[in-house]
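Complex record, two chains
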Amino acid sequence: MSADNNDIQITEGQLRAMTSDLDGLNTEQCYPAMTAAAQSWAQDVADERRQAEPRRHFSRRSFLFGAGGAIAGGLVLATTSSSLAAAATRPMAAAKASGELTGDAAKLTGDLAIAALAASLENLAVFAYTAGLSAAKAGKLGAVPAAVPTFVTTARSQHMQHAAAWNSVLTAAGYKAVTYTDPALTPMVEKDFAAVKNIPDLLNLALTLENVAAQTYQGGADVLKSAKARAVAASIQPVEMQHAAVLYFVLGKYPGIQTASGTPLAFNPLTLAQKPTS
Amino acid sequence: MPYDDKAFAELVEQSQDMQSDAMANVARPIDELVELNFERAARGEIDMEANQRFAAAHRGAVAASLSGASALTAVGAGAVLLGLLASPALAASSPDIQMLQTAASIEKLAVNTYTTAETLPYIGGSMANSVVAKFVSVTKSQHTQHLAAFNAATARLGGAMQNTPDPTYVPVVDKAVASLKGLSADKGTLAVVGLALELENIAAETYVADVPNFTDSQARATTASIMGVEAQHVAVLRAVQALVMAGAPQLISLAPGNAAKLPAAAGDLAFPFAFYPISQAAPASQGAVK
């Protein structure tokens, strides 16, 4: 490999085109697998709830439509609309004020409680990336490397899709979608974000959130009772870890999970994993 | 960017120590455990028919994998697999053991591949990019630890440890390695990165596909702790591949200020999927001990 080449020999467009085939694979092969798992899981929990609450007349037909619609709609919105970003970043205070945290969310147990936790963590990541991007565009974070807005925009879009997947299960089961950010972590993130002065600060905060999400999903993949729920968690955990790998690289660190002192780890830990009771 | 050779040597030593510790944990008589597994089967404590059904069910996955575009998944593995699926040893193994053995066989192949790659001057020698060289060395160490962990989990469940590389992929890897001869450093680097990328992706997708299906909690937790690490390897290799193809290998650097030089497209080319695919996952029984 020649190390003395200082010129980029292909254009941005060509570099982008290198991933276009993967984009096609994304919609054709990845989402159907995840969607099938999420829909099937949603059907299971709706069936269970219908048995527990026979007077609530869950319609299998409308339920199935609702599950598919929620996922498909979420995915479309996640890539094309900024309104979802606003909807998905309601801070904890607003959720408390609306009674959301003492309503549906408080009733959730088992796998659905983990789904709600996961959605709230995804919302928190969306919040951080949205706020970070706004601050960067406003010139509040100093020089912004060209790769950073690209990273933030795509990572945020993927987090929105993750939140939509978890929420599709909750809504299909007759519960409200989680539109607030994780109650346990939001105060810390708001405090840390207030201290963000430059791009490395922002990326370090994002790195923490990505590792929290990845480790929470990893823990979830073990404790979730439903294999279908575990499939959803397992399809997301590696994506959060890939976000983290890029963040490590851009920050000039070894591009993989590591100890605080920088020693690479062969096994992802669970020290940052969140639990529904937190 | 030069890295701290001394610190790195210590890191490798730590990894070796970890592997030794892991292997010490499975130092109990493995043969006895395997024998116990067969005895349990003879006593009817293992559902042989269910295990055979599990293996048979994965014939479909074999076909799916063979229809993929990947060179590694397009190999003619049918005969090998049919032999495996028909073996009594396989039928005696639980689905969990089969998945763990397959995982170990993929890890063994990865260790062998990175070991070979390290001998190439443009990967592990004087011509190598220092970040790539460190990545290859660390990644090889991590796969060694994964292999030990999968084998330890297998032994705990009474299965035979798998220390043979996945037979389905070995011919393809051997052919790819042979084709490196005479290549320039740039082309050789791309060939090695491309091969490693395929192997890492197969590993990651296999574990993503397997995690929901484990019945044993510890086996599931072990695999879950590894799948994301393999996905990070994939992300790094995608970025390296793109930057080398772009004629910008100097941007594969951890030096301060390097981020400012990266093109915009470098920001997200390492993670194109919002949900990790499983289309290239190895059939769960593919690497099971015969």
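Note: The longest helix of chain B spans residues 217-245.
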